[in-house]
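STRUCTURE:
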């Protein structure tokens, strides 16, 4: 029976009105008995006639009984379906670029895509360009990359896609940072691809390809058509997605749009200090990239809070070049100021949006008070003392522990001991503790140093020394303030001559360790700090501490030797530098890098105190500059009126845009840091460029400082105007497809799999509600009636 059902495509039979099997059998038996009873009384009929009538009546009754329970047949059928062909059109901001097509081949390609020229125009490019009239030239010049994409599909390649539509189901999507379905060819009317607006702030090609591959609805893809300039702003690695597409047999066919090497001038990056003092002359190093404008002059300008403060004419050399410009900080108010560095754009540039870079500088209108305590005249201290004395932003005071009080009596720069009076002790923003025996300090002096950092927002920097620091500080209040653990009374260990500092990921992103903007060059500079000779026996960093630099060889040491590290301690910061050979940065460069790292350390450690005005609630951000949609980490340090940490479930701050008049502040709840009592942190994602201010809630505002940060104006979408041809070719290679040009789109029919795909599906067919059942019943009843009439039966 099963074989018979399968042969006619019936997979199984079930009941629409489920009933116990015994009930069904009882009804069939009842029909059998009724038939036997009726025809057992019929006399005078031939046996064969009576048997035939009985069978007809029995079949009739059984069919009626079965129909009551509504039998349903589950049938399995196979049909041919079309494969799907998604067409993805990039509508990110870079697709809005109007490329300056100066070469004849670029002009002809754009003309073919727009339907202005036939594909045959490529046979004689120069002649075709000459024959273009003014209106056609203007249309080609005004066309954006997304205009070419829409026109290519709906005009030039329309016959190709119409032909493909007979064999494939074609769906049209637009994508940037997200994917959106426009429609398909079967819609009435079909979706229009004219007038697409390219304004998405990012491009995620790999995520869009993965998303469209997952919307197959069980129908295989013949491939994916990708119209894009290849610019990818997503941080996700595409190899896995593209390899999976290749394994699944889904090739990607990119159609590049744009110019691989457009004529453009852009500011790639600027290097500028984050903190400036009133009256400072601030240097800015500008990295410029240009093509097509060699030997032409352009104005490089700087604006401070919208006012022009510096400008100079420079000559473009082509490729990458570096230019320096200086501006004076003439602001007297403390706070964040907006700095804009710009290049005067040429009229025919691809875009002017990448000609300007905005940064933020924190203006300080008071000097930094530094107390440097040292026990030996080592080279690091000699250079540091000279740099501190000549820096006009710093009021430096020194304690020479081995010289006794005599030097303090004879020099205004020196004092004999750490101040006893609290107002004198707490005026220092930073204490630099060198190779000093802990026995030099009294218990009260230790407590005043700890109070300065923990409660008054000051900072401590230990510059390790082979005689006393940090070994002699075991068991003192200084030990718990330091960001690393160390072996007490242990000797310094010798290291190989080839070992040098290596920046950690945190160090690479920290301004403290940034000596050059190029990461490779920065790493190269730090590799010159060798030989380190000897290093203190430091162990692992404390929980919550940040390691900025470790060693290039840690085989004989802890897993990550904390050469340079820091941590928050109460309202202040504590840093440890595990070597006194930073002066090796002076090799062939003088003070350039050596003072830069010390200056950046001092600024990092003292800025929060200088900007916070010693408030009980101090607000900070981890950086001064962020990108759009980046993560700004916001900190709040909460102390009560006795300067003890406040413990609560959260702390609410508000973030407000300073560049949008009347902008409503956004509230953000900071959560407590379990490892640092009184410290609260949270994240804010800015969606628009400009300046932002962080303030405490209305209740605590009078007790709190404020802080500001800058969001970069230049979007990554417009940072590089070049079409990424190699990226598109890589997408094609990894997925098993082919990179096609505008003029190569005719190859699509020969590359795509146009064969229909067989798919099996099941369907339920009611057996009780069909015409064949009525026909059988009528036939049985008619036959019985005719026979009974033939033999004059009632």
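SEQUENCE:
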């Amino acid at each position: 029976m099963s074989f018979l059902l399968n042969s006619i495509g019936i997979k199984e039979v079930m009941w629409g009105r489920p009933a116990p099997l015994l009930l069904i059998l009882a009804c069939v038996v009842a029909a059998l008995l009724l038939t036997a009873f009726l025809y057992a009384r019929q006399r005078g009929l031939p046996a064969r006639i009576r048997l035939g009538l009985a069978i007809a009546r029995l079949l009739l009754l059984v069919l009626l009984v079965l129909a009551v329970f509504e039998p349903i047949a589950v049938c399995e059928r196979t049909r041919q379906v079309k494969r799907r062909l998604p067409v993805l059109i990039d509508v990110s901001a870079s697709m809005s670029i109007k490329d300056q097509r100066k070469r004849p081949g670029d002009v002809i390609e754009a003309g073919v895509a727009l339907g202005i020229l036939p594909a045959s125009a490529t046979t004689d490019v120069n002649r075709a360009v000459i024959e273009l009239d003014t209106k056609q030239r203007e249309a080609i010049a005004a066309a954006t990359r997304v205009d070419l994409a829409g026109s290519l599909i709906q005009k030039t390649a329309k016959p190709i896609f119409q032909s493909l539509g007979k064999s494939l189901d074609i769906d049209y999507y637009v994508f940037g940072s997200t994917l959106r379905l426009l429609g398909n060819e079967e819609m009435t009317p079909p979706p229009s691809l004219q007038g697409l607006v390219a304004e998405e702030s990012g491009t995620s090609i790999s995520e869009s390809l993965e998303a469209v591959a997952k919307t197959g609805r069980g129908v295989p893809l013949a491939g994916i058509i990708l119209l894009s300039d290849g610019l990818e702003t997503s941080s996700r690695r595409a190899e896995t997605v593209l390899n999976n597409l290749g394994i699944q047999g889904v090739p990607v066919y990119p159609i590049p749009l744009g110019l691989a090497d457009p004529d453009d001038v852009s500011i790639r990056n600027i290097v500028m200090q984050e903190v400036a003092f009133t009256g400072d002359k601030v240097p800015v190093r500008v990295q410029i990239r240009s093509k097509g404008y060699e030997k032409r002059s352009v104005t490089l300008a700087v604006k401070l809070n919208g006012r022009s403060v510096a400008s100079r004419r420079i000559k473009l050399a082509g490729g990458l070049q570096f230019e320096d410009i200086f501006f004076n900080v003439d602001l007297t108010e403390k706070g964040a100021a907006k700095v804009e560095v710009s290049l005067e754009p040429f009229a025919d540039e691809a875009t002017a949006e990448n000609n300007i870079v905005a940064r933020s500088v924190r203006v300080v209108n008071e000097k930094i008070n530094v107390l440097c305590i040292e026990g030996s005249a080592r080279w690091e201290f000699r250079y540091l003392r000279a740099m501190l004395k000549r820096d006009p932003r710093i009021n430096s005071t020194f304690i020479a522990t081995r010289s006794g009080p005599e030097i303090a009596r004879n020099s205004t720069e020196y004092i004999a001991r750490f101040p006893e009076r609290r107002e004198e002790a707490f005026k220092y923003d930073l204490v630099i503790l060198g190779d000093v025996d802990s026995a030099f300090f009294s218990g009260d002096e230790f407590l005043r140093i700890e109070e300065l950092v923990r409660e008054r927002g000051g900072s401590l920097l230990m510059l390790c020394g082979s005689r006393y620091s940090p070994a002699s500080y075991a068991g003192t209040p200084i030990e718990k303030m330091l960001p690393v653990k160390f072996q007490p009374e242990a000797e310094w260990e010798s290291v190989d001559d080839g070992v040098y500092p290596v920046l950690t990921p945190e160090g690479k992103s920290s301004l403290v360790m940034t000596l050059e903007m190029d990461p490779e060059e920065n790493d190269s500079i730090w590799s010159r700090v060798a030989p380190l000779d000897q290093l203190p026996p430091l162990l692992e960093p404390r929980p919550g501490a940040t390691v900025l630099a470790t060693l290039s060889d840690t085989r004989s040491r802890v897993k990550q030797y904390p050469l340079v590290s820091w941590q928050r301690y109460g309202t202040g910061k504590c840093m440890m530098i595990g070597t006194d050979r930073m002066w090796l940065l002076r090799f062939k460069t003088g003070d350039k890098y050596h003072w830069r790292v010390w200056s950046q350390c001092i600024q990092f450690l003292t800025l929060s105190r200088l900007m916070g005005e010693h408030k009980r609630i101090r607000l900070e951000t981890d950086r001064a500059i962020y990108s759009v949609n980046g993560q700004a980490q916001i900190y709040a340090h909460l102390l009560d009126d006795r300067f003890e940490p406040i413990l609560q479930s959260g702390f609410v701050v508000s973030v407000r845009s300073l560049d949008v008049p009347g902008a409503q502040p956004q509230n953000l709840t900071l959560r407590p840091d379990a490892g640092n009592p009184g410290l609260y942190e949270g994240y804010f994602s800015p969606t628009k460029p400009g300046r932002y201010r962080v303030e405490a809630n209305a209740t605590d505002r009078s007790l709190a400082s404020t802080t500001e940060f800058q969001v970069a104006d230049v979007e990554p979408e417009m940072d590089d105007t070049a079409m990424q041809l190699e990226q598109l070719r890589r997408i094609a290679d990894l997925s098993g497809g082919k990179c096609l040009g505008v003029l190569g789109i005719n190859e699509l029919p020969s590359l795509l799999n146009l064969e229909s795909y067989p798919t099996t599906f099941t369907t339920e067919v009611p057996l009780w509600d069909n015409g064949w059942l009525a026909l059988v019943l009528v036939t049985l009843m008619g036959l019985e009636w005719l026979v009974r009439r033939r033999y004059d039966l009632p």
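REMARK: Residues 45 and 464 are 125 Å apart (CA to CA).
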